[in-house]
Design a protein that fits this description.
The structure is a homotrimer. The first copy, chain A, contains nine helices and no strands. By secondary structure, the first copy, chain A, is mostly helical. In chain A, helix 3 runs antiparallel to helix 6.
Chain lengths: ~210, ~210, ~210
């Protein structure tokens, strides 16, 4: 049995939540939403992927349950969004934000894969649930601000999550210890994403 | 135990459904959809928030269950949309429609809060579920007509729902009788919204 | 008891999945997404309707369960999308693709109606679930590529699904054998859609 709680509410997950909240809030500021809109986008970008993951797996959203640890998480997201409302600068290119975002991408990929595995989903379920957990919040905030989601158009971003979830599936099926599968998946996604940032990788675009 | 059925299918809820259906149908007419598109938008705007609420709470959508009372509801929504197709005027500024819409906002906020409370969700769950129940239908129809949702951009609208759900959470936790919490929440949302309409309140906008 | 598995994973369903995947991939190519975006749109257009159906019915998505038959399905969708990435021509007007798409529309309408019936949903649940199963994937891919969904604007497409699900509801309630209801619903949707293609039917548009 994978100790998901230990992992999911670990530091990396919370760092990712804050980075996602900031990126969501920025989209709202950029599109001239009002204060409520910016706060809603911040929370939805941070929590939307995990909520969708839990709904697809037939569970109550983890973000809606519990009262202790999760209070700090919400306070953190709220603080990040409100501080960002005061700054109003695009800090998404900042290397600290980018690395925090990569940590979130890795942590969310893992929780998606673990929930799918615990729900006995097949390889499609594992890849799709990891993908949605990791990039679902960003998809939702892009759609709400009337844009084609960035992850579908450019950058080497969601691909890191797909590589990680395929690695998770393979490692579980070749009999690697489950906790080991979790940690190596986290490392694979984080490493590939950091390399993609450093080397400025992009997927080829297509012309119709 | 809160008598949700009594409240949820009460007159205010149905008035809200009709007002939401009209606002959805208008978006469709305004964006030059065909007749089917206008009807679909009318129904989705009226029912989308409640369906999303039930899915998030792990329940079968209330709109899909039962055969008696709910038949009148659907007939009402359908009639509102079809009558509106014949009129084709923007009546969303009409004060009767605005008050009906405010009644719907209040009733939907309450059902979201009650379902979240019955699912033992935390404060985030209560606020988010109330928010989605109340404005989810409008969000869906804005997204489907390729617009940034109005509630994120302007007006003092979703904020009334958030104030109401926070009041619900507080009143339940300071030990107020549950039915009393339900009715005061309804009154809080309705009052704040009507005052916001009369005084033309808006949240501050942001510039990037 | 309707033998859904027999029908749902039959040849028509798989033909529909491939046609839907191709139409989704084309939207991605047309909007200049990268390779990942095109593949994601192909899979989401094919699987999105069925996944939404299962979530609304409180079930685990069928696409995420099972390992045998479903492997061929995914391999088929992937192959269709990848072959299409190599061709990059708009083949959506091709009569073979149009008929395959009509077969998918009919098969998906049936599975939506059957799942709704098995969940003891009312007539609204049957119509809405059939509608979402049949056109949900297309709605998702249109929203993700920042367009007003085609099915809301033009063509006589989703209407065929609605006619079929109403027929299903009527036939079940007048006591027709359930397997017979399934097959006649399939035939009704397919026939109406093929006639609509041949006679170039459109619903009337509206002007505001």
């Amino acid at each position: 049995m994978i100790d998901l709680n230990f992992f999911a509410y670990s530091a990396t997950n919370d760092i990712g939540l804050l980075a996602f909240a900031i990126s969501g809030a920025y989209k709202g500021i950029n599109r001239k939403l009002d204060i409520l809109g910016v706060i809603v986008l911040g929370f939805l970008t941070a929590l939307g992927g995990g909520i969708t993951r839990d709904v697809l797996a037939g569970k109550s959203p983890a973000a809606f349950l519990g009262y202790n640890d999760i209070g700090f998480t919400f306070a953190g997201i709220g603080s990040a969004v409100i501080m960002y409302l005061l700054i109003k600068k695009d800090i998404s290119g900042n290397i600290i934000i980018k690395i925090s975002d990569a940590a979130g991408l890795a942590a969310f990929t893992v929780t998606g894969a673990v929930v799918a595995h615990q729900s006995q989903f097949n390889i499609a379920g594992i890849v799709i649930l990891s993908f949605i957990t990791a990039v679902g919040g960003g998809l939702i905030s892009d759609v709400l601000t009337n844009r084609i989601p960035m992850v579908l158009k450019e950058d080497f971003y969601a691909t890191c999550s797909i590589i990680g979830s395929l690695w998770f599936y393979i490692s579980i099926n070749i009999g690697i210890n489950q906790n080991c599968a979790v940690y190596t998946t986290f490392i694979v996604v984080l490493l590939v994403r950091v390399v993609a940032i450093l080397l400025n990788w992009h997927l080829p675009k297509l012309k119709s």
